[in-house]
Write a structure and sequence with these properties.
Blueprint: H1 2-31, H2 51-62, E1 67-75, H3 82-95, E2 109-110, E3 116-124, H4 131-142, E4 150-154, H5 155-167, H6 170-190, H7 197-219, H8 227-256, H9 262-289, H10 297-317, H11 320-328, H12 350-361, H13 363-377, E5 386-387, H14 391-394, H15 400-411, E6 420-425, H16 429-437, E7 442-447, E8 465-466, E9 469-476, H17 483-497, E10 505-507, H18 509-543, H19 547-574, E11 580-581, H20 584-614, H21 616-643, H22 651-683, H23 692-703
Parallel strand pairs: 5-11
Antiparallel strand pairs: 1-3, 1-4, 2-3, 6-9, 6-10, 7-9, 8-9
Amino acid sequence: MAGRRGGTATLVAALVVIGWLVVGGVAGPYAGKLGDVSTNDNASFLPADAEATRAQDLTAQFADQQTTPALVVYARTTGLTDADRQRAAADAARFARVPGVVTPIPPPVPSQDGQALQVVVPIDEAEGERIGQVVDELRAIAGADRDGLTVDVAGPAGLLADLIEVFGAIDGPLLLVTLSVVLVILLVVYRSPVLWVFPLLAAGTSYALAAVFVYLLADHDVVKLNGQAQGILTVLVFGAGTDYALLLIARYREELHRHERPWAAMRAAWRGAAPAIVASGGTVILSLLCLLLSSLNSNRALGPIAAVGIAATLLVMLTFLPALLVLGGRWAFWPRRPAVDQADPQTEHGLWSRIAGFVARRARVVWLTTAAVLALLTIGLTQLGVTTLGQSAMFTQRTDSVAGQDVIAAHYPAGTGSPATIFTRQETAGQVAEVAQRVPGVAAVRPVTQGSQAGPPEPNAPPKVVDGRVEFEATLADPPDSDGAERTIRDLREAVHGVPGSDSVVGGFTAINVDTSDASARDRNVIIPVVLLVIAVILALLLRALLAPLLLIATVVLSFLATLGLCALIFRHLLDYPGVDQSFPLFAFVFLVALGIDYNIFLMSRVREESVHRGTRPGVLAGLAVTGGVITSAGIVLAATFSALAVLPLVVLVELGVAVAVGVLLDTIVVRSLLVPALSYDIGARIWWPGRLGRTDRKARHAR
C-alpha cells in the first residue's frame, strides 16, 4: 500500500513539474517585455487634485501641441567663437529634421557672459518613452566636446532620456546580477552541486509568472509600471522566493531524518512550514497593498505590482518546489544526504544550539544589551536629511543631463528651460504678473502669447487667452530641482493665490516636485500606522496571543529606526550622498517591516509549535536552534538580492537597496537571533497572553 501511495505521489509530482515547466516556458518571454509597458513620467504619478496636475491640464489647453523641451547647451569658458555659433545654428537646423521634434525651433539663446549658447528643442510629448530615442539622436547630431567647446543635452527631455537608459538595465544587468548572487549564496549554504537548482528554478518561474500578470495589468492601464517598481519586483521575487525555499528545504531535510520515503517527508514538511510561509507571504502582500492608500499614483502602483510578485512566489514555492524536491529525493542533498535516524533536529544545529544555550544563561542581559545598541543607532536619524534629490544628486555618476544643467546654472538663470507656469483669470493677469515678479527667487515673468512658444514673444503682444485664462512663465533664479526653487514655488503660490478673484494655479517641473514631496509626507503619516495594525492582526491570529505580537512589532520598529540611523551615517559619511529622497522612508518602512516580520513569523511560529510539546522556555531554545541557521541564510539571501539594486546608477534605488540589506542583516543577526529569543525566554509563558498556551504551560510547570 505504501509503495502504491509512493508511486502515485511521484506521478503527481512529475505532472506538477511538467505543468509548471510549461507555464514557465509560456510566461518567460513576458519578463523581457515589461519595459515595453513601463513609463517614467513623474507628473503622471501625481494625484488628480494636486495643483501641478491641474496646471498640466491647463497647459494642454494653451498648447497647440504639448512638448517636453530638450536643452542643448554649448559652452566655452574663454568665450564662444563665430565657429561655435555657426555650429550651433547648423545643429539646430538638423535637430528640426529629427522625427518627434516640434518645429519651428526657437533661435539659440546666448548667455549674458558670452560663454554659452542654448538651443531649446521641443519634443512632442506623444512620443512617450521614444523621447529617449529622440534625445539620443540629438546627442548624436550635437557630437562630443572638442577644442574646448562642451556640448550637453539637458532639460526635462535630457533627464527623462537618462532615466530611461538607467531603467533599461533592469531587464539585463540587474536580473543577471540578482541570479548570480542567489546562485553563489545557495552553493555556499547547501554545499551541494545539485540542490541549488531547485530553488533557483522555482524563483525564476515565480518571476516569469509575476511578469505575465504585471504586464497585463500595465498594458490595460490598471497600474502604472515604472522602472523603479520593475527593479523592486525583480529583487523582491528572487529574494523572498529564495527565503521561502530555504525554509521549506530546511524543514524537508529535518523530516527526511524521520521518514524513509521522500513524499512522506515532504507531506510532513509542507504541513509544518506552509502555515508560516503563507502567513509570511500574506503579511507582505497586505502590507504592500496598504500602498493603495497613497495619494501618489507611483506608490499606489508599486503596492499591487509587488503584491502580485509575492503572490506568484507563494503559489510556485508551495507547489512547484515541493514537487521538484520529491522527485529529487535524498540524492538532491548529495554529498550530505540525510539518513533515516530519527535524530533530534537540534543535533544538526550545533552552533545555534550553543547560541540558544547562551541566550538561556544570560537572557535578560542579552535583550537589554541588544535593545540598547539598537536604540543607540537611532541617534543617526539626525543625519538622515529627507529632501527632494536634485538632478545632480539623482544619479551615482555624472550624466549628460546633469552636466548640461550645471552649465545652464553657471551661465543663465538656473531655472531657464524649466519655468514655472502660472494660470490666472484674464482680468487679474496684470496684478498676478506684478505680484509674481516681486517674489524672491523669481528671475523673470513673461506672458505666453500667440505663437510665443516658437520663439521670444513680440514686444507688446497681447497674452493668449483660453476660456478666460492667461498663462505666464516664471523663470526661477535657482535650479528647478533645488530646495531653493521649491521654496520659491511655495512663496509664488502663496503670493498669486492671495490675489482676489485670480483663481491662480502654479505648475511646472518644480511644482511637480513640491506636490510630490507634500504627498509623500502625507502618505507616511497615513500608511505606516495602517501597516503596523495589519501586521499586529496577522501576528495575533497566527500566534493566538496579544502580548507576543505587540512585543514583536516593537522589536521590528526599533530595528527599522536603528537601520535608518545606521544608513544615514553610511549615506552621509561613506557614500557622500546629500540626503534621502522623500519616498525613501515609506518604501524602507514597508519593505523592512514587512520582510522583517517574516523572520519573526518563521521563528515564533516554530517556537509556538515547540512550546506546545516542550513548554515555553525550552520551546524558545528549540525554535532558535532549528531555525537560526535557515533564518540567517534567508536574511543573507534577501540582503544580497536587494544589494543588486546598486548596479543601477540611481541614488534612490541604491539607498533603498543598502537600507534593506543593512536592515535585514541587522534583523536576522541581532534581533531574530538574540533580542527576540532572549526577551521571549525572559518573559516565559506569559508571552502567549491571553492565549490558552500560556495558561496550560504555567499549569504544567506548577504541577511538576
